[in-house]
Amino acid sequence: MNLGIEGRVALVTASSKGLGRASAVADLNFVKLSGPVAWLGWLAVHLFYLIGFQNRYLVLIRWSYSYVTHGRGARLITEPPPPPGA
Q1: Total domain count for the chain?
Q2: How far is CA 26 from CA 23, 30, 81, in A?
Q3: Looking at the domain assignment, is residue 86 inside a domain?
Q4: Are 49 and 41 in contact (CB under 8 A)?
Q5: Structural domain includes residue 78
Q6: CB proximity list for 43: less than 8 A, separation 6 or greater
Q7: Residue 58 belongs to domain spanning
Q8: What's the pLDDT at 79?
Q9: What are the residue ranges of helices labelled H in 1-86?
Q10: 85 within some domain
């Protein structure tokens, strides 16, 4: 069976997007998912692409802790720095 470039591109057209806490959308070519089911799929795909069991386990623990405690992943500095010599 000879799969040309067209065949390979057709296999990679699925997409998913995480939207927030327990909310996502996914288009897998044969089924469209939304809500918590798509969100769990998004988490599973991202864990799958990590290398090594220990990395997957630690990321899963960190994500679980952040989910339960409503932790934020990014901290932004919104105040300008003080002027020099102040």
Answers
A1: 1
A2: 10, 11, 42
A3: no
A4: no
A5: no
A6: 63
A7: 11-68
A8: 82
A9: 5-11, 36-48, 53-69
A10: no
Pick 22 or 12 by higher pLDDT.
22
- Give per-residue pLDDT as tens, 15-61: 766 667 777 888 878 888 888 888 888 888 889 988 999 999 999 99
How would you write 16-39 as a 3-class SS string? EEEEECCEEEEECCCCEEECHHHH
Identity of the amino acid at 33: L
Angle between helix 36-48 and helix 53-69 axes, rounded to 10 deg: 150
CB atoms within 10 A of CB 33: 17
Lowest-confidence region among 4-8, 37-41, 42-46, 75-79: 4-8
